[in-house]
Amino acid sequence: MAKAIGLSVALLALWLALSGFFKPFLLALGLLSCALTLYLAFRMKLLDDEAVPIQLRLTLLLYWGWLGGEIFKSAVAVSKVILARNMPLHQQLIAVPAPQKTDMGHVIFANSITLTPGTVTVETRPGIFLVHALTEEASGPEGFAEMGRRVARIEAR
In which order are the strands placed within the sheet that holds 128-133? Predict the structure, then answer.
């Protein structure tokens, strides 16, 4: 029931944010479309922890804010490398420990690495990711460890 309510609230909020219409007829159509989507998700048995991750809540929003800052800092660093006259590239493949316990945690961590400019998650195995880094600065283990700890905190709640 909590997942159905969570999905309903998310769908309604998304519909309102994207439509911007507040006339009664259009609000009724929005409610109807959200209700139909919820009904179909229920019939297809899609209301599980992976499809409706309500356990992530506020910690995920805080993580997205932190990740946005990291993406910006990495983008500036990669831009400096690209614009440098001699392009100081030190490409390497590194093994990054993945301390997350759930599939959702692994997905968030791997995608966060790939979203950060200068790094790409090439391969995932249980407990470890193979990551391509563009520079030595991008391959530092402390950055990956911090990101891994933050993702582990998200999935722990």
Answer: 92-97, 128-133, 119-125
> What is the chain's length?
157
Q: Is 133 helix (H, G, I), strand (E, B) or coil?
A: strand
Q: What is the pLDDT of residues 88-138, one digit of tens each?
A: 888 999 999 998 888 888 998 999 999 989 999 999 998 899 999 998 888
Report d(CA 139, CA 96) in Å as an integer.
Answer: 9
**Placement of tokens 């997905």 in the chain:** 107
Distance CA 93, CA 131 (A): 6
**118 backbone φψ class: left, alpha, beta (φ>0; ψ -120 to 50):** left
> What pTM was computed for the model?
0.69
The conformation of residue 137, written as its DSSP 8-state character, comes to G
Residue 36: its pLDDT value, please?
Answer: 93
Whether the CB-CB separation of 131 and 119 falls below 8 Å is answered with: yes
Our measurement of the distance from residue 73's CA atom to the centroid of its chain's CA atoms, rounded to an integer in Å, reads: 17
Of 114, 15, 25, the closest CA to residue 71 belongs to 114
